[in-house]
UniProtKB/TrEMBL annotation, chains A, B:
Keyword Cytoplasm: yes
Keywords: Cytoplasm, DNA-binding, Transcription, Transcription regulation
Any GO BP annotation: response to stress
Protein name as annotated: MarR family transcriptional regulator
Gene3D superfamilies recorded: Winged helix-like DNA-binding domain superfamily/Winged helix DNA-binding domain (1.10.10.10)
Length: 149, 149
DNA sequence: TCAAATTTAATTGTGCACAATATATTTTTT
DNA sequence: AAAAAATATATTGTGCACAATTAAATTTGA
């Protein structure tokens, strides 16, 4: 079947809705796995960043996840309450807040390794399909990024 | 380059983050266009459904968008406040609430036709690429749907 | 040097998402 | 027909997202 070239207002033909629905569905599949770790999905993303590089600032975290302090500040406070990380002003520049994992935060990494494995099973997708879809989405996001000037 | 077969915890290799980030980016591109119509992105989705078929219930709307009454009820109340639709209990079954477009709600359709056209430009994607990505996301969502039993 | 501009987080306010529960109505079962 | 089960929506509460504003620290530059 030939692709319809006319942009229209039919829900089922929108890329945006397909993206929005798939993203929510995938998050819903993560939910029970992350519940077991005591994390929400955005909190899990923050932990992924910190497991890669600890001691970064809120700004660096935000740049990585494309989230601002309005989202991150309360989220990080909750993770601090859960004893997974510490927030403290940097001495070198008091504007910045440095995020440091606690021992509990670091040890959660081990239990979290089950999460991607468990998800890979549910995805029923070959590694090549996985990589191709992921990279298409990444370039879409880059292409839609605000014009940098 | 060969696809990495090992599921891991690196942010940039996660499909979920690519999906989450792309979805938020695309919504952000819609935002100024929808602001002009006085709609948020989820409100726009509701209007898409109603422009296709008016007089449906909250349940049918929810089935279509995969949203529950906890999300839809307040959203629909806001659209009612904006004079775009009416909510009223059905006489045939008082449990159901039927959503009907007002004249203002119907006439918004015409102005909205600009939205997908405007977006198609920003996407810089061939119709075939567009359709393929959209349909991959749709089958991903279907595949991740809760096991129906 | 010191005033202006910039940078970084936090705060405030709105609007989703979604789980859990409540309420009212309808249908089914006994 | 009455009780029980199922259905549809609303409500409550938590946690994002994100725009707009505020506040404090730092950098820039006249």
């Amino acid at each position: 079947m030939k692709a319809d070239l006319e942009p229209n207002l039919l829900l089922d033909e929108q890329l945006c809705f397909a993206l929005y629905a798939a993203s929510r569905r995938l998050t819903a599949v993560y939910r029970p796995l992350l519940d077991a770790l005591g994390l929400t999905y955005p909190q899990y993303l923050v932990m992924l960043v910190l497991w890669e590089r600890d001691g970064i600032t809120v700004r660096e975290l935000g740049a990585r996840l494309q989230l601002d302090s309005g989202t991150l500040t309360p989220l990080l406070k909750r993770l601090e309450q859960a004893d997974l990380l510490l927030r403290r002003r940097r001495e070198s520049d008091e504007r910045e807040v440095e995020i440091t994992l606690t021992n509990a935060g670091r040890s959660l990494h081990e239990r979290a390794t089950e999460v991607p494995r468990c998800l890979a099973k549910k995805l029923c997708m070959s590694a090549d399909e996985f990589v191709r879809l992921r990279d298409e989405l990444k370039s879409l996001a880059i292409q839609l990024a605000p014009t940098q000037e």
